[in-house]
Specification:
Elements: H1 8-18, E1 22-28, E2 34-44, E3 48-53, E4 61-65, H2 66-71, E5 74-78
Antiparallel strand pairs: 1-2, 1-5, 2-3, 3-4
Length: 80
Amino acid sequence: MKQALQSLDDVKNRILNLKGKGVEMQINHGRKKIKTYSGVIENAYHSVFVVKLDNALANEKVSYSYSDILCGDVKIAVKR
């Protein structure tokens, strides 16, 4: 079991600070399937946050829980 280096409140505050900014995400889908997405954090709610993906063809949104970041399934970096 992985040990959390951050608290849930730290993760929520980090996501709130990134709201409206471009991010790059790595999502671990299991069995060595890692996908990379880029988008903008559109909104942050009590237990989940919503990311609008940069895709010219579709207006796609995905949501993840803060615990996904804590356990390492979702990694977020600011887009440069």
